[in-house]
Amino acid sequence: MSYAGSNPGPFDPSDPAAPFGPPQPRRSPLRRPLTVALAALASGALLGWLAFEALAGTGTGTGGDGGPDQGAGPAASSSTLRSPADGTTGDGEQGADGEQGADGKQGVGGSASAGPVSLKGKVVVIDPGHNTTNYEHTAAINRKVDIGTNWKECDTTGTSTNFGYSEAEFTLDVAHRLRTLLQQQGATVKLTQDGDRPYGPCVDERARIGNAAHADAVVSIHADGSAAGNRGFHVIMPGEVHEGAADTRAVVAPSKELGKLLAADFARTTGSSPSNYIGDGSGLVTRTDLGGLNLSTVPKVFIECGNMRDGKDAALLTSDAWHQKAAQGLADGITDFLNRSS
Ligand SMILES: [Zn+2]
């Protein structure tokens, strides 16, 4: 999706590429018919624009700010007008995907019912773990990068199910679904990679993308590669480090808050349990050895959504329907966090 490619409306007078130029000189008899025709067209378009503005102007700045549903097809034009009715539509769609999760969410928390602009002005960076073609660039991803406290590999290939479905495919699909859900609520969303580069980014760059975006929250999506029988999800939060370029002192507390909310919402929407092999049943783990966390200057957590090497977890991790539930849980957790911290 591209904000720049969106249709700004029926007529944008400020757009130099618009088909209506400035008023033509009236003295040229050759130009006069054209001028009249242009004037008629322009006034018609202006009326249309004014009508559009009147309809869209119930809020502020709703005309072309890169809001939700850009390029989403038939729904895009109606959702451009962010009326309360659109919120109903959006919630209904989410409810159909998330079933009990979305319903429970709206009934209890109320943040989702705030409508599609509840995250307007918020910046969320989604970090899809690994890269589907990292395995073709082993030398590049094995080179060490400075994470402040240590030197670690640029990136890793990630794990996969026993049947070859890769963690990188999983993380990117959930990232796309999460992006859509967050944009429907008005958030500005950036991915650290979108299948658009041969490898990486390296873990230090992944952190810096969130920092440079001044993200209000960053979530790095992963799935684990542990022994069969080990099941469930866990959220990894930054511990306090202050060494070299690593300084997490300001983000430990908000990241912990983000992590707790994410874990609760993820459990609710997916029905999955917190990990039975790490985190003492809390689904929460603190680490100080991950470059993606150590170098972050904005609230950030990782989530290991399940264990790809366990058959039962793998069945979930390869299910499109479950991916949607996972994305919904992440969206709800991020929404809770951003609404509480604003
Ligand atoms: Zn991973």
Number of strands: 10
Unreliable residue stretches: 1-114
Oligomer: single chain
Shape field: globular
- Supply Rg: 23 Å
Describe the largest sheet.
6 strands, mixed
Q: What ligand species are in this complex?
A: zinc ion
Q: Estimate the strand proportion.
A: 5-15%
| Structural class based on helices, strands and sheet pairing | alpha/beta
Distance between the termini: 27 Å
Q: What sequence of helices (H) and strands (E) makes up the elements? A: HHHHEHEEHEHEEEEHEHEHH
- Mean pLDDT, as a whole number? 77
**How are the strands of the largest sheet arranged?**
4-1-5-10-6-9
Number of helices: 11
Binned, the helix content reads 40-55%
Task: Provide an overview of this structure.
The chain is an alpha/beta fold. 41% of the residues lie in helices and 13% in strands. It contains eleven helices and ten strands. The strands form three sheets. The protein has a six-stranded mixed sheet, with helices on both faces. Strand 7 and strand 8 form a beta hairpin. The longest helix has 25 residues. The two termini are 27 Å apart. The N terminus is likely disordered. The structure holds zinc ion. Zinc ion binds next to loops.
Q: What structural keywords apply?
A:
single chain; 342 residues; alpha/beta; six-stranded mixed β-sheet; two-stranded antiparallel sheet; 11 helices; 10 strands; disordered N terminus; binds zinc ion
